[in-house]
From TrEMBL:
It comes from the Bacteria. This is Transglutaminase-like domain-containing protein. Residues 515-572 form the Transglutaminase-like domain. SMART domains: TGc. Transmembrane segments: none annotated. Signal peptide: none annotated.
Length: 607
């Protein structure tokens, strides 16, 4: 009996101790929240715009915030501006400066006496914000919800602004600000504290201490420069830069460039133009972003973020890609004058940096002696190497490299040069015929789509050969190739070389020449032709590469219509047939018809 009684006392003591620790942690948490509230009260003490409410609101991860009201529907609240589409009684922000709104709830529910205004991250209030990535040989996609689906996600602190009186519906003279604290204790994972450094080869290096119960970590980039146009409120944009199995991550500039935004001119040297496929053109200039790490447990629960790394800290230290237009122009001018030696190629190349500026880096070239069409480059002090320009210019007819004499000879075809002039003339002439100055942006998009669909056919044969060639290249670099016998491997190599030659003969089907001059091409040709005609017509267009839901390579366009990026897939419309030639036109980037059927490459995931 004594032993049993002692065990009971010990167990009771442990339970009391644990519950005491829980209460102690809760007390510390609320004490910290009150301290934060005191700082915010001081911040807004002299404000002539807001009144800060001293008592924080405490909720759990899946709990709603409820305010009693006498107003039965959102439409009865007074609008901030008569031109607004709806009233905005509440707005949820993720920052205390109230510059990054998350959503504006409008849910009202009836109760026994009166009504409740419900503030929750439910599907009816906010579109789910998530990140996803593919992993493994079968490219299985994992998706993690950062906010939405009735969960406050990774947020432990939010800021709620009340604009209207809940009894009368009238606008408040000064809106109220509430500090909202969200309890994440059920996840039982600490927030990773991240340290940053820049490696010698220009990569962003992140390290953090091990988080107990974490299976792996997500490195997240969030775009902060969000705009509000025509009353439409954008939420935060997230991209998963890396899934880390250990407590460190190396992020190359390629990955960082996924959700960057750039102004049309480089601030350091206006002579440089950045490439359309690597940036968005926005009036505000470089978009702000920050990077943080969240831990993931075996149940796929996420921790809250710790500290974050701002774009200002990365600045012009990390190159994110070659400034292709500038480099191509330099290379084109040298080729047109006649390149006789590899030493004549430019020894420095312009690189787009993480802050949108352009800096020059030393570059080293080499030639593949077995295939002189390939000119390899390595940009010193960066990870940009082992890449190449394959027939960089359509005008190039042939190349020869002598390893012994170190001489590169390039010959180009005068007919091809004239052909490039012809395509320029064709773009100018066609754009002038298809669109006119009285059309708005959407009308121009529809007119160009209609012209390309009606005048050109999809080159199924060239596309099938390209897909077969792509799959053979993937097989050659995969583990599966090691299982092939010598004869099977030789057969694969011979087939790949044969396809490569056939594709070289059909290369016009993979650029705008195919559709504009020969009325036949693949999705690459349609997308390039749309971008060329659209740009000539004054539209902002980019070509987007990626895959369809069936895993086939595909190219389409993003085009800005009324200030918003929209999807245009002219090749897809052509293949739909005459009955539905605008099916993939003017789609929002979150439209299920687009989101479920297309997977853009990493550099376009920001869209």
């Amino acid at each position: 009996m004594k032993k049993g009684y002692c065990r009971l006392l010990i167990l009771t003591g442990v339970i009391l101790a644990l519950s005491g620790c829980g209460r102690e942690n809760e007390t510390k948490s609320k004490s910290a929240a009150l301290e934060q509230a005191a700082v915010l009260k001081e911040k807004y003490s002299d404000s002539d715009k807001y009144i800060f409410q001293e008592e924080p609101i405490y909720i759990n991860m899946n709990e709603s915030i409820t305010f009693p009201t006498k107003i039965s529907k959102s439409a009865d609240f007074e609008k901030n501006n008569q031109d607004d589409h709806t009233a905005e009684p509440f707005t949820v922000y993720e920052d205390c400066d109230l510059t990054r709104p998350l959503f504006r709830p409008d849910t009202i529910s009836k109760k026994s006496s009166g009504y409740n205004f419900i503030i929750s991250p439910s599907p009816q209030n906010i579109a789910t914000e998530s990140v996803s990535f593919s992993k493994g040989y079968n490219k299985k996609k994992e998706t993690f919800t950062l906010l939405g689906d009735d969960s406050w996600g990774i947020y432990d602190t939010l800021y709620l602004v009340q604009n209207n009186d809940l009894n009368t519906g009238r606008l408040l003279e000064k809106p109220y600000i509430y500090l909202v604290k969200i309890d994440h204790s059920s996840v039982k994972m600490a927030a990773p504290k991240v340290k940053m450094s820049i490696t010698d080869d220009g990569q962003l290096n992140l390290e953090w201490a091990r988080v107990k119960r974490a299976e792996y970590y997500l490195v997240i980039q969030e775009q902060l420069s969000l705009k509000e146009e025509n009353g439409y409120l954008e939420g935060p944009r997230f991209a998963c830069l890396e899934i880390a199995k250990s407590e460190k991550a190396h992020i190359s500039g390629y990955r960082l460039g996924a959700s960057m935004e750039y102004s049309s001119d480089n601030k350091n040297d206006p002579a440089y133009k950045t490439d359309l496929e690597l940036r968005d053109e926005v009036d505000a200039g470089v978009g702000d972003y920050h990077i943080f790490v969240v831990a993931v447990n075996k149940y796929k629960n996420l921790s809250v973020p710790g500290n974050s790394i701002s774009s200002d800290a990365i600045g012009n230290k990390v190159p994110i890609g070659l400034a292709w237009n500038t480099f191509s122009n330099k290379y084109a001018s040298i080729v047109s004058d006649g390149v006789k030696k590899i030493e004549d190629l430019p020894d420095r190349v312009p690189m787009i940096m993480a802050d949108g500026s352009v800096s020059e880096y030393t570059v080293t070239y080499s030639i593949d002696e077995s295939n002189t069409d390939l000119i390899y480059y390595q940009v010193d002090n960066t990870v940009f190497d082992k890449d190449w320009y394959y027939n960089l210019l359509p005008e190039i007819d042939d190349t020869y490299y002598s390893p012994k004499r170190k001489i590169l000879q390039v010959s180009y075809n005068e007919d091809a040069v004239q052909g490039m002039e012809s395509i320029k003339e064709q773009v100018i002439r066609t754009a002038g015929e298809v669109v006119n100055g009285n059309m708005d942006e959407l009308e121009k998009v529809k007119a160009i789509n209609r012209y390309l669909v009606e005048t050109s056919d999809f080159d199924d044969d060239a596309f099938a050969k390209a897909e077969e060639y792509r799959k053979l290249r993937e097989l050659d670099s995969s583990e599966e190739s090691k299982k092939l016998s010598h004869d099977e491997w030789r057969e694969m190599e011979d087939k790949r070389d044969t396809l490569k030659e056939e594709l070289r003969e059909r290369k016009q089907s993979f650029n705008m020449i195919g559709v504009l001059l020969h009325q036949k091409g693949t999705s690459d040709s349609y997308a390039e032709a749309f971008a060329a005609l659209g740009t000539q017509a004054g539209l902002m267009c980019v070509c987007v590469t990626g895959e369809t839901a069936s895993g086939e390579a595909h190219t389409w366009n993003y085009v800005k219509i009324n200030g918003e990026w929209r999807v245009a897939d002219v090749a897809g419309n052509e293949m739909e047939g005459s009955g539905n030639t605008e099916k993939y036109l003017n789609l929002a980037l979150n439209d299920p018809l687009y989101a479920d059927a297309y997977s853009p490459d990493n550099q376009f995931l920001r869209k």
